[in-house]
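Page 42, continued from yesterday. The earlier attempt failed because a stray header line got pasted into the input along with the sequence. Redoing it now with the clean sequence only.
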Amino acid sequence: MSSRPIRAALLSVYHKDRLAPLVQVLRQHGVTLYSTGGTQKFLEDEGAEVTAVEDLTGFPEVFGGRVKTLHPKVFGGILHRRHDEGDLAQAEQHGIPPIDLVVVDLYPFEETVASGAEEQDVIEKIDIGGISLLRAAAKNFRDVLVISSRDQYAAVTELLTAKNGATDLEDRRHYAAAAFATTSHYDTEIFKYVSQDTAVAGSVLRLSAQPATPLRYGENPHQAGTFYGDLTALFDQLHGKQLSYNNLVDVDAAVALMAEFTDGEPACAILKHTNACGVAQAATLREAYVNALSCDPTSAFGGVIIVNKEVDAATAAELNQLFFEVLIAPGFAADALPVLQSKKNRILLLQKPVEFPKKQVKTLLNGIIEQDADRQTETAADFRTVTQSAPTEEETAALVFAGKICKHTKSNTIVLARAGQLLASGVGQTSRVDALRQAIEKARTFGFDLHGAVMASDAFFPFPDCVEIAGAAGIRAVVQPGGSIKDADSIRACDELGMAMVLTGVRHFKH
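This time it went through. Structure tokens are written below.
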């Protein structure tokens, strides 16, 4: 039969919140309840009559609770097939009562790891009995309903109320699939933890992310899109429409770029298609935004803006004059928020501190590639002067600033800047010369005088042509990784033009 009444249930949950309404429905339908430890006490406090699992099995909990449900009378009650005469006969022979519902909320392994707990505490949060119960019940979904998350309690309560304490095969299959999703994710997180610093870690790749958030579409309307992960851990969305696929890609780039500016000085970055079209630091956030906008007000239209300080009323008033898609900030002043919320669809994100993954993955061909996240950022201490002239203190500050932006800009890229302000960049070009020419043209278009400015390159110069073009435009200092067999030609060109050049030894391609 597709429809099956629930006559007996096993409950073993770590978190007890939200469970009471479900228990009430089970009691109303006369369901026999089995349980252990803290769950049993909770059920009894709710007024339910409960049979202890150790009374069912005739065997006590042992090893500090590590073993309590792992017994044939428990798993036999879940796994025996109600349509199989042999299974039914064996169940009767061994006194194994059927269990029609399994409710398990696993030990919080992932949360314990995230808390920074000691290894022994983490190991004790690896659920053994619970995970086995879920798998057993999910396997036998023809006969058994399984609940694998407290997020399901309300829906199952409504389901049992509507169907008079019974479920259909379709219901049971749905929750079985959800249970296997739960166990798969759980095991993946355990593997990631236990395999750290072992050879196994590099031999296989296990990925799991939840929950799933359907997007309106992907990069284009004809492409479906979904975000997997917990955005609420990183942002509180205070206003605006749902984030789109392209919004999320730009927001990711914005957050990564702004992570470079942690020195306390107010900073603002404006991004379009993952590249910065404006970046500035200044004494006030309003000034930083105004300076960032002046870099390229044309591209800023419809962009993503991120700041590293609370948005005050003065900054909000300036921001409100521009059409932009998303604003990300660590805080919003009470008198600033209403101003920014005046545009219906404008997305406002309150950014919360969160640790980002140390690895990056990307689908490619018929597989996946993985790499370490690029967490290296060069400072003045990493610069090696290779020209006759060394950069001045102000030029050094500008080179450090330009290098931060260059690291987060699509290759091939050239960044032109002064201390605290992006002047222009050439992004995603097929040659470095084209990137430089694009940057020079943009700077001039928006009225910037490049005399005394600096240049950053994400990779080495294969020829001296970029140095020669930059020198003719007024650039006075250059930062690049070096490593070309013709580095000497670029260095010589700098000396002939009276320019300073520093090498970092670190390339920052971004494809």
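Notes: Residues 450 and 474 are 5 Å apart (CA to CA).
Reminder to self: strip header lines before submitting.
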